[in-house]
Amino acid sequence: MKMKRILLATIILAASLIVCSGITLAGDFATTDECISMCKKAVAMYNEKGEEATFQAINDQSGPFVWKDSYVFAMNAENGIILAHPMKPGLIGKDLLALKDINGTMIFVELLKAAKAGEGWAHYMWPKPGEKQASKKASYIYTIPGTTIAMGAGAYE
Asked: Which residues of 72-107 are buried (b: 16+ CB within 10 A; e: fewer)?
């Protein structure tokens, strides 16, 4: 009987540790609410400090617009050209409208549609950092009123 209690206590402790570590790991992933908030934070900076300072902050991999497994990027809301990107600076100035996910979704065409509407979401498949297999991802995009600049950020679903 004593051995059963010890075994049961061990199982409960192990299960608790697994659950708790899962909660900690879940905290490492961006949420859709954070994506909206960070895009709006980038817009506020743009309105306060201007384009150059904002793009410089966005391009900084250890800056205020990179968090958890996400980041803010900026694109032209009329043609989809990338204006600022912290993780892949080689994309700046590039037209990514032809980029498709594994299901054929034209990712930046969808983002551009949302940007032209003022704001919205694009849903597509994309590998998580460090992985090769694609996962469901949603990216929010918000166009700064009176400009052709849109701020975007994504979260895995």
From this structure: bbbbbbeebbbbbbbeeeebbeeebeebebeeeebb
pLDDT digits (tens, 9 = 90+) for 18-35: 333 333 355 699 999 999
Place of tokens 């506020």: 44
Phi/psi at 56 (5° precision): -65, -45
| Rg from Cα positions in the chain | 20
Architecture of domain 31-156: 2-Layer Sandwich (3.30)
- Extract the runs of DSSP E, i.e. beta strands, from the chain: 66-67, 70-71, 73-76, 82-84, 119-127, 134-143, 149-156
The span from the CA of 121 to the CA of 147, in Å, is 19
What is the helix, strand, coil percentage profile of the chain, to 5?
Answer: 40, 25, 30
pLDDT tens by residue, 38-56: 999 999 999 999 999 999 9
Written as six digits, the tokens of 119 are: 């704001």
- Contact residues for 55 (Cβ-Cβ < 8 A; gap 6+): 74, 83, 84
